[in-house]
Structure formats: structure tokens, C-alpha cells
Design brief:
This protein has 325 residues and is an alpha/beta fold. It is 34% helix and 14% strand. The protein contains 10 helices and 10 strands. The strands form 2 sheets. The protein has an 8-stranded mixed β-sheet, with helices on both faces. Strands 5-6 form a two-stranded antiparallel ribbon. A hairpin with a 3-residue loop joins strand 5 and strand 6. Helix 4 packs parallel to helix 5, helix 5 runs parallel beside helix 6 and helix 6 packs across helix 10. The longest helix has 23 residues.
Length: 325
């Protein structure tokens, strides 16, 4: 069944906040897992889900710092996860599965952006290896603990406009460009969500990718002040001046909408932005809105799934032949 990238007229827009879209949503008795849920967009997402009654497990590289930040939120716990370390991913998922609990919402939120060239795992380019392969492994390893009817939300971004999958040089062995690498990782995340929805559909598990918008958070920690000034984001004193940026509360809104909105019942595998399904647009240059066809392409999504399974040695759906996408 084709997944149409057509807005649903949700009633929300780019100015809506996470609290706006969660109003009237009752998550009591539900459990959410979120990576990086103690800072920036992740913190706003955690607060909103907890306020709606969910029990939230925040996965963080620095659990002590996360616990200190989240100490005033009831129903929130923290565990250790380093997405760049596959052993850490295995251990983290193993602890949750071993606890016998189930997850109703999984949010793949944590990421790195535009860092200098580095390698993780088995020589993988770090943005692809962390942003995509780390979450690919986590979700597959958590699969026995994913509740029927669960939603899995993965944070892509308009950064996917910068690059499709570079099938002939996925790991940037022929030369590194930090923005092309970031773009590929965000395309990979959208494709992951696309194919996961195909594989999980029979269990009632639906998957989405989202563009949260431009938000000034710690995600930009690898960028120099001068670079952000040259882009027109910050002024000479480092203050945000770009009016197209959202607040963290606005940035978290699409994540929360995808995780909870009844409008998405029966719909999955789509890329969302501004609290709605995004339009598929094939434009010649990067833009602030829309999803590129290559980021929601069924054939490329399945190809990436099998590559990711080969690289990580992890596939919860090994031997499963999915239905037509």
C-alpha cells in the first residue's frame, strides 16, 4: 500500500507547541522510551509526555547529568546509552527487555551534527553510525519489548535535503564533507522509519520520521560561532537572530504529534513536519520544508535496512518477507 505524503489538515502549524498538541491526550498507563530526552528538544518531549501521564525512560550518555535535569519530573527514569557504541546499545536494550516491561512509544531523538570526521563501530562514518545505525540497532534489539499498537518516531530533519544515500561511498572513505554526512544520516533515518513501518505493521506498530524545524540547541555544539554567524543564525554576540528558528517547545511539537495524534491511526511510514504529514517535493536545491522522494522511497528503504542489518549484525525481522510497500 502506497504511503501518500499528503497533509492531514491537523489544525496545528509551525507555531504550535508540544503542550498544544498533547492537550487532551491521556498517556496514563503508557510507557515511552526516548534517546537524549534530557536536553533541547528531547527535554521538552520528555516533559510533555510525562505531563500527559506517561512513564518515560530517558536514555543518555551521561545518566548522572540526565537525572539531575529530570529530578523534578514524576514517572521519569534514566539509563545509560551511547548510540556510538554498539556494545552500549546491546546492553541498554538488554536491560529493558530483561525487565519484562513494554514500550508503547519509542522516540529516536538523540543525534550528532556537522562534526569533524571521526569513526565509530567498525569504521563507520560517525554521523551515519550514531544517528542511524545506533538507533537501528536499538529499535531492533528492543523489538521483543515493543507493545502491539506502539508508535516509533525517529527525528530526521530538512538536513536530508543535503544528500540522498551515497550508495557508492556510504562511509565517506573517498573524502569527508560534514554537511553531506549529516544529510545522508537524516535521509537514512527517514528511510529507516519508512521500512520499519512495513515490517511492524502486522503487529500494529507504526513508524514515523519527523522534521522538528530549526532550533538552537546543543546539537550545534560542533559548529563554530563564526559559522553560525555566517549562516545568519546568530549576531556578533551569539544571540539568535534568524526568525525561522523555532523554540524548543515548538520544535518538540511534531515529535509529540507523531507519537500521539489520533489522526495518524492507520497511517505510518510518513515524514512529518509542522505537526502534519509533509508534502513530497522534488526540488533542485535544499529547502526548509517538504520531503525529498529519495527519503521516502520504498526500494531504497528496504536496501538500507539490509545494509544496516549486515553492518550491525542485528535484525529483529530476519527471515520475514514484508508485504508490498
Amino acid at each position: 500500500m502506497k504511503r501518500a505524503q499528503h497533509p492531514l489538515d491537523s489544525g496545528f502549524d509551525r507555531n504550535s507547541t508540544a503542550a498544544d498538541v498533547a492537550r487532551g491526550i491521556d498517556l496514563r498507563g503508557k510507557r515511552a522510551i526516548i534517546t537524549g530526552g534530557h536536553g533541547g528538544l528531547g527535554l521538552e518531549t520528555t516533559r510533555t509526555l510525562a505531563s500527559a501521564g506517561a512513564d518515560v525512560l530517558v536514555l543518555a550518555r551521561n545518566p548522572a547529568a540526565a537525572r539531575a535535569t529530570l529530578a523534578d519530573l514524576p514517572g521519569v527514569e534514566v539509563d545509560l546509552l551511547d548510540l556510538a557504541d554498539q556494545a552500549s546499545v546491546r546492553a541498554c536494550a538488554g536491560r529493558f527487555v530483561g525487565s519484562g516491561r513494554k514500550a508503547d512509544i519509542v522516540i529516536c531523538n538523540a543525534a550528532v551534527m556537522a562534526n569533524d570526521e571521526s569513526r565509530v563501530g567498525n569504521g563507520w562514518e560517525s554521523q551515519f553510525g550514531t544517528n542511524h545505525l545506533g538507533h537501528f540497532a536499538l529499535v531492533n534489539l528492543l523489538w521483543p519489548a515493543i507493545a502491539p499498537g506502539a508508535r516509533i518516531v525517529s527525528l530526521s530533519s530538512m538536513g536530508h535535503h543535503y544528500s540522498p544515500m551515497r550508495w557508492t561511498d556510504v562511509q565517506f572513505e573517498a573524502g569527508y564533507d560534514k554537511w553531506l554526512a549529516y544529510g545522508q544520516s537524516k535521509t537514512a533515518i527517514a528511510l529507516f522509519a519508512r521500512h520499519l513501518d512495513v515490517l511492524g505493521r502486522d503487529a500494529g506498530v507504526r513508524s514515523y520520521s519527523v522534521h522538528p524545524g530549526k532550533i538552537h540547541t546543543a546539537l550545534q555544539r560542533h559548529m563554530a560561532l563564526e559559522e553560525m554567524q555566517a549562516l545568519g543564525w546568530l549576531d556578533a554576540e551569539g544571540r539568535l537572530i534568524d526568525p525561522s528558528f523555532k523554540t524548543p517547545a515548538q520544535g518538540a511539537a511534531t515529535t509529540v504529534w507523531a507519537a500521539t495524534s489520533p489522526l495518524l491511526d492507520g497511517i505510518g511510514g510518513v515524514y512529518c513536519e509542522d505537526c502534519d504529514v509533509a508534502r513530497e517535493e522534488d526540488l533542485p536545491a535544499p529547502s526548509e520544508t517538504g520531503v525529498r522522494p529519495y527519503a521516502v522511497d520504498a526500494v531504497q528503504a528496504e536496501r538500507l535496512w539490509w545494509l544496516s542489518a549486515e553492518l550491525t549484525g542485528i535484525n529483529a525481522f530476519a527471515g520475514v518477507t514484508p508485504g508490498a510497500a
